[in-house]
Write a structure and sequence with these properties.
The chain has 693 residues and is mainly β. The protein has a single domain, classed as TonB-dependent receptor, beta-barrel domain (Maltoporin, Chain A). The chain has 7 helices and 37 strands. It starts with a helix and ends with a strand.
Length: 693
């Protein structure tokens, strides 16, 4: 521990000499006055003391040339993405913070209005679930300190999506239509109003595209409704969201010793019949009661129901008949939560105390029927249920308006039960099926802690640092895995643990804002799927460390520049791959963007160049490098404008038609190279237009 603290202290000192960053606060006299705390939508309250944070505003979202939330997030420091389904509408595209590669969905915690939204299966959070027109802003908090407030899974960081509501709004409506490359069509509608203490808002979205590749068609529809009642004594809210997704799955392009499908036909497919479907509904509600000045009690909860179907067919001959059924899985997941908490914000002379404390209760049930084809008896029926109960508290003390210190702790009890019902008479493929899995009943208690500090020297310069420990419980799909045929599935995996250190600076000088940080994270029992053994395993100890820098320059009132640069290392600390890079993590990434109001709001332009360095393919823990994913740079451009109530935009993604991919799986063995690649779209043009009322 002492060595780690010294490393962090040296890193912070070096960063202080090399970088500067800002306190983002406005002065009053000779003191820095903190911005008002907003705890109505997020436990983060604008960020966790000592953490590197970023806010993506509603204007940023509206003007971005990228078509998906994942692409917009990838512009930010320390964030990388991976796409398996052609990148259509962002469905299935995962977001990685601080270098977790293929396990990123389970190591980045996503919140909607401050409430965790990650599922207990491997899919993690699909950003396409949230209609983009319903988002007010996005809060990014890097590192694992979010585990105290939100529980397991907040290892790489926390992304909080704050949605719009109709509080205080005059009656208004917005309609929008879009058409683009690959026969893409999208329609959006939103409306909100308020009357006295009541307010309401609705959002709808319909998306349809043939996609970049063959068998890449995606069709999605979404709706969100929000109702609120707010008085001086408190508030009540009710929110319901529904989503339907139908998506065809083109699968990989393969490279072997004799063929290279990626070069010869990147848009083709060996899986012309594979497809999936998802139906999702989420209901959230809660009550806020002001107890006294500066104190409020919040009791809220949620209910989610998700049905997914996945069908795949044999692509090759040999033991198989091409296009014969290979698997048909139907899965139902239900999640219930109740999360009461109390928020306090009090001041005494030069001391201000903010605190949050609460209880989290989550229960998830999961049933998955695994059959050979639709209508066949299931070979396996997996029944799981998981319950977590936690208590937590995190106070933050501010004195003299320029020093913050935050300390927090969480104790969480996890209960998991798994059963596998096996039918030996059910139809199976040519290779047979696994026998019945071993039952599992586990109970364990884990904890997370956080200590953060920030000192603001003046309105222009601040330093911050933190240390934290967190954990991640194995999710349901990791426990099931894909064990080799005729192997008994063992659902038992150890809980992943991490210790995280970070320090940095913020600088604000006239029209320049800079944030820079360094971090160091040590993990044990990291959870990982091995494409060699086809099972999920606990890795040997690993480490993440790196630097993240962001800068914004307002050259004039009409021209703004923004850039980011990140160095991310993910390495094995011991075992047979000690010193090697963890696959699917680029060491270098960054972006550079410019925003220009050419003629006030009537004509605006936004351009972004995004760079991602080379990385080892999944499965190449030995770092042989024969299948290394090449570095790439993609440029996106948007022109838009508003006139009266009407607005329009023309966006071009991948302006220079770059051929690239961000995921590859190396399944080679001596004498037989075999690499699977998932190509991403070439140039795509989208025209949008709409009106507000």
């Amino acid at each position: 521990m002492g060595v780690q603290l010294r490393i962090t202290a040296v890193a912070v000192a070096l960063t202080l000499l090399a970088q500067a960053a800002s306190a983002q606060d406005e002065p009053q006299g000779n003191k820095v006055i903190l911005p008002p705390i907003d705890i109505s939508s997020s436990r983060l309250g604008g960020g966790i003391t000592g953490s590197s944070t970023t806010i993506i505003s509603s204007e940023d979202l509206q003007r971005a040339p990228e078509s998906t939330l994942q692409d917009i997030l990838s512009r930010e420091a320390g964030i990388q993405t991976t796409s398996l389904y052609g990148g259509v509408n962002g469905t299935g595209t995962t977001v990685d913070m601080r270098g977790f590669g293929v396990t990123a969905p389970s190591n980045v915690l996503v919140l909607v209005d401050g409430r965790r939204f990650n599922d207990s299966d491997l899919t993690g959070f699909d950003f396409s679930l949230i209609p983009r027109n319903s988002i007010d802003h996005i809060e990014i908090t890097r590192g694992n300190s979010g585990a105290v407030l939100y529980g397991d899974g907040a290892v790489g960081g926390v992304i909080n999506i704050v949605t719009k509501n109709g509080v205080g709004a005059k009656p208004n409506a917005r309609i929008e239509g879009a058409f683009g490359t690959f026969n893409t069509r999208e329609d959006k509608i939103s409306a909100s109003t308020s009357y006295g203490p009541f307010s309401t808002a609705v959002f709808g979205n319909a998306f349809d595209s043939d996609g970049y590749r063959q068998n890449n068609k995606t069709k999605q529809s979404q709706a969100v409704g929000d109702l609120r009642y707010k008085t001086n004594e408190g508030s009540v809210f009710f929110n319901i969201a529904a989503d339907n997704l139908r998506q065809n799955l083109p699968g990989p392009r393969n490279i072997t010793g004799t063929t290279n499908e990626y070069l010869s036909d990147p848009r083709g497919t060996n899986y012309p019949l594979d497809k999936s479907q998802r139906n999702n509904i989420a209901v959230r509600g809660g009550v806020t009661r002001n107890l006294w000045s500066g104190a409020e009690l919040i009791v809220d909860g949620s209910l989610r129901h998700k049905d997914t179907t996945f069908a795949t067919f044999n692509p090759f001959g040999g033991f198989f008949t091409p296009n014969d059924p290979a698997a048909y899985n139907t899965t139902t997941l239900n999640a219930v939560s109740i999360t009461p908490r109390i928020n306090i914000d009090q001041s005494w002379d030069d001391v201000r105390a903010k605190a949050i404390a609460g209880v989290d209760i989550y229960k998830t049930t999961y049933q998955s029927n695994r059959a050979l084809f639709q209508g066949a008896a299931p070979i396996h029926v997996y029944d799981f249920n998981q319950t977590t109960m936690a208590i937590y508290a995190q106070p933050t003390i501010t004195w003299r308006n320029d020093n913050d210190i935050s300390v927090g702790g969480r104790i969480q009890h996890n209960s998991f039960h798994a059963r596998d019902t096996y039918d030996p008479t059910a139809p199976v493929g040519p290779l047979g099926a696994n026998p019945q899995g071993l039952p599992l009943d586990t109970n364990e208690t884990d904890h997370a802690t956080h200590l953060g500090i920030e000192h603001r020297f003046n309105r222009n310069f601040a330093v911050f640092a933190r240390m934290a420990e967190s954990f991640r419980v194995p999710n349901i799909d990791e426990r099931v895995g894909m064990s080799p045929v005729l192997t008994v599935t063992n659902f038992n995996l150890r809980t992943q643990k991490s210790h995280d250190f970070e320090g940095g600076v913020r600088l604000h000088w006239d029209r320049v804002d800079v944030q820079s940080s360094v971090y160091d994270m040590y993990l044990t029992d990291e959870l990982h799927f091995s494409p060699i053994t086809f099972a999920n395993v606990n890795l040997d100890p690993t480490r993440r460390y790196g630097m993240e820098h962001t800068a914004t320059v307002r050259i004039t009132d009409d021209v703004r520049l923004k850039g980011s640069a990140s160095y991310t290392r993910a390495v094995f600390r011991s075992g047979p791959f000690a010193g090697n890079d963890v696959p699917e993590v680029s060491r270098w990434s960054g972006s550079a963007g410019a925003s220009w109001d050419i003629y006030r709001k009537y004509l605006t332009a936004e351009a972004v160049a995004h760079y991602v360095g080379k990385r080892f393919a999944d499965g190449d823990e030995a770092n042989v490098g024969a299948s290394m994913i090449p570095a790439y740079t993609v440029v996106d451009l948007r022109l838009g404008g508003e006139a009266d109530r009407f607005f329009w935009s023309l966006s071009v993604q991948n302006l220079f038609n770059k051929s690239y991919y961000d995921y590859a799986l190396d399944q080679s063995f001596p004498g037989f190279p075999f690499v699977s690649i998932y190509p991403l779209p070439g140039r795509a043009v989208t025209l949008r237009a709409g009106a507000t009322f």
